Amino acid sequence: AGAEESLRSSFAALEKAHHASKPAPTEGTAPAAPSCDAPSEDVHLHDESTAELPEPWLTFEEAEQGLPRELLVEMRARGFTAPTQIQAHTWPVLAAGRDAIVGAKAGAGKTLAFLLPCLARLLREDGPQRTAGSTSHMPVHMQRPFSRAGAYSPKILVLVPTREAASFVEQEAARFASSAGVPVLACCGRDGLRACQLGRLREHPGCVVATLGRLLDFLDSEQHWFSIRAVKFLVVDGAERIISEELSHRNRKLDADPKAPRQLATPFSVEQLRSLAVQVETPKRQAMIFSQAATDGVSDLARWILKAPVEVRLGPRNPLRASRDAEQRVLIVADEEDVEAVAATFIRRHYSVRAVKSGKALVFAAEPESCDALAKQLRDALPEEIGVELLSGGRSPAEREAATSAFRGSGACVLVTTSSAGCGLGVQDVDLVVGCCPPADAAEYARRVSCAGRPGRKGLAMTLLRRRLDARAMGWVAEVMRSTGLPVPRHLAEALRQRRLSDAPPVDRRGVYWLAEQAAAEGRTGEE
């Protein structure tokens, strides 16, 4: 009853705060990303060298001095009226051949910020690419032989944290790379996709988008013909997630084996990414790192693989600062409360007072089993026209792709996902994020919130926490709120105070008396 009353009052407050659902995009502006006309944040550029920084390209007409017209025509055809802030400042830096480290929140247009300059330079220097012709339909022993080790290397290599991110970048790249004559391939996913991707890799695509694990797999098993020696453009997209995903994976393995040495729980992927960069032998290769958060791991990676980089940052540097476009709300429930049922009730009420398909909701659950149960509850609770899709590690690649496509398109309004699988979806019209499980750390909570606060759109991030079991996560939530410049809600501050009191060790009165006697004795000794 307490949780229901808290939910009712919380929802009433949310309705008051979100009476206006979300602004419709202006005519001619693509809903996928805002233009420079969207509400702006400060863009910070920093260059340790003495070189003069180029002026931003605020219009497509200005961008024509460094980008081919056919790429900009494609931008206009998709409804964009101007570059986004991060694109306007990043394009001229990358077009000048400089390495860069770029930080911006989700929805800022980072993908096209690196894709278009890479494609432009590749087209200008090498001309349209030609595929080697497909032999992937043949048995492996009949596929095209290669005369020497590392005979093929892509020109553009983009590293991403998850298969969903790889799929999104591949789709974005394919739209623009086709006009530049650059074939694109995503290398990611389970073993069931490996043979197909390997066959397409033998066609020599000019741009490869890969997760770290799949790339290392191909470099190891296919080293007699595949390498990254001739990569001209090395992009690490979602760098903070690549590092944290690797660290999270190692920590899960350590938790399963308590006897494992704890010093293994370090972000080894920084070293792996460094070793990959060393394999690139192109004399004038260009490298760039894109991330949402300026973590220590990202800074370490930049020191290893970037040469005299230009830093382009949208908004403050603090990695725990979430989007100010998303309101943060926290609902604290009893430990024995059915969190999934509370979340289903909240989401049902959220859609009942709004027009159907007025926005999309991203719902985070802890495990694949929790995702299944929550998706079932939501399908039972919501009208049929509000589609509910499920995305988790327990789904097949085909099911994951179908769920992602439906959520990106008009087939579903709600996506239930694990925190890992929800990374890099590239969906812009999310205005509600519900966390049914505690975040792994403060940085993950900040990323969740930012999913609901895209530039130019208002959103809501609702987090459900159990009073005692999720006490640690309450501290992370409060830390992000303070970093974002928001007051910590009274009920959350009170819960944290109660936690500190309960965590305090019991006072041994006998010990207190003994310490007092010792102090008194020392005082007398000093006087003597």
UniProtKB/TrEMBL annotation:
InterPro entries: DEAD/DEAH_box_helicase_dom, DEAD/DEAH_RhlB, Helicase_ATP-bd, Helicase_C-like, P-loop_NTPase, RNA_helicase_DEAD_Q_motif. Residues 1-53 are annotated as: Disordered. Coiled coil: none annotated. Its EC number is 3.6.4.13. Residues 23-34 have a biased composition (Low complexity). GO terms for molecular function: ATP binding; hydrolase activity; nucleic acid binding; RNA helicase activity. Residues 325-496 form the Helicase C-terminal domain. The keyword ATP-binding applies. A motif (Q motif) lies at residues 60-88. SUPFAM superfamilies: P-loop containing nucleoside triphosphate hydrolases. The keyword Nucleotide-binding applies. Signal peptide: none annotated. This is RNA helicase.
